[in-house]
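Collaboration report, partner site 2.

Our partner group contributed sequences for two proteins of shared interest, and the home lab folded both. The records are reproduced in the order in which they were received, starting with the first partner submission.
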Amino acid sequence: MSEAADTRQQFLSVATRLFAERGFYGTSIAAIADELPYTKQALLHHFGSKEKLYGEVLKGISDQLMTELEAARDATSGEGSSALEDTLIRFYRLLEGQTHKTQLLMRELLDNKHRATSANVWYLRPFLESLIALAKQASPSTFASDAQALITVYQLLGAMNYFLVSEPTLSQMFGEEMYRELRSGYEEKLRVLISQAIG
């Protein structure tokens, strides 16, 4: 990796974490640069603006999710209910170790009210469209329209993401032992939820 590419990656890594912790509006270019041995001007040289940096962060997460989706399709021949289930379980396992990305995606839904009307690119749209297609392949009789499939996909992703970002609260509220039990049983419950949703 070249020095310039390495610098960009460092900025993206810190930006992902800070955007997740503080949201788009609560994170400044200066705060990101302060965590690295670079200046604010260096960050702007690489990305141009906070908006463009944020777009790159979302694109990186979307690309990672799409890679997992393709891998799940390849592993299951891309057909039937097993393709959707395997894909969603892969997402859960991926995000289980990277909860800051889950937190960022949830913050994006909450924080983008003002930016949504002027957004030119929706980085997560191809990912959601692919899940819609998988849901319709899994159960054509259940999902007659894209909207019906998206409702179910969104509910499943929501349940998964809500659980993942709840770790600090649940472990403090009910204790580490109970949280470990919750964590160990969640994937199986998620499989049941997916199976019931497909019909």
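Second partner submission, folded after the first:
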Amino acid sequence: MTREPLIPVAEARGRILAAIEPTAPERVALAEAHGRILAEDVIAQRTQPPADLSAMDGYAVRAEDVASVPARLRVIGEAPAGRAFGSAVGSGEAVRIFTGAPLPEGADTIVIQENTERYGDFVIIRQGAAAGRHVRRAGLDFTEGTTGLGRGRRLSPADIALAAAMNVPVVSVHRAPRIAFFSTGDELVRPGEPVGPGQIVSANNDGLAALIAEAGGVPLDLGIVPDRRDAIRIAAHRAAEADMLVTLGGASVGEHDLVQAALAEDGLSIDFWRIAMRPGKPLMFGRYRDIPMLGLPGNPVSALVCALIFLVPAITKLEGGGDTSPRTALARLGAGLAENDQREDYLRARLELRPDELPLVIPFETQDSSMLSVLSSADCLVIRPPHTPAAEAGEIVRVMPLRA
């Protein structure tokens, strides 16, 4: 097998994303759309507020009648929320009004009840209010026919509430991508199964399923596959209805790393299979039959880190998202770091928040890629580009947060 040059991380991610198209749109009830990405703009079906409304409990009056206080006005009725007052407010008149009620015809301001005294059919205004005071104008929030939420937006709880207020019960979103995956290795058993001599408990399937679901995909766990070419091909066939196939392990060049060879006989075309990254050099990408295929390392830490950097952006593009770049931030080093080599390094680290300062980032002393306990304890990954010189404590570095 020819050893191709190591591909830079950014180039590898770009080549993966260039090979992926968003899933088809589907229409879903608004109550089921949280976290989904819009395939079409959401257009307001009504104006909000639909009329000038009172923003406070008090009295609807004419501003000119309360320009000089105290002012004595005759109360001609009331306007509760949800029901308009049927008559106009004339000179020297007031209407008792409640929050959310339409502003009566003739009135142009609201005097809050704290600034009044009521005596039977009359009210004394102790403090006036300029025209428009405590009035929510029609269309203040949005107007019918305007775009409230744009295509490509991931819907938040506030977005769901806005669409509901716009009287939109159903939205068009991209279908949640189905990500099929399997691990390879005769030495692997699932958690809870008997562990024989030389066997290890596989952490990859469950960890990757959680990551896929968190990213917005639908995980399709195809299990653990033995190191046989026929078994690998049978497992890959079961991904026919998926939007992407992910394999774990078997992507290197050892005698038992069979994924590339097995699937090459069955329609796999390889784009690249080695990247300049630590952890995770043996990462493979190509196309298996009609779907993109990503081969992650079998090492559980390497698999999860590579999944964060390559699979999560791929899922984002599959579900219609525009911003596929991993989220990064700046932090100040709490300990010195040695010079980096030709591979982009992702160091597991913890963050210490500092008031009014950049957070302090402290890489773990042990970066062994077999240690899931370190990754679980990490708040972020320190990103060190290739050939970065040695860094001293206090220098600013870029990090990728692992927690909200």
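Feedback sent to the partner group on the second submission included the following. The mean pLDDT is 94. The chain has four domains: 9-24+176-318, 26-44+144-174, 53-136, 329-401.
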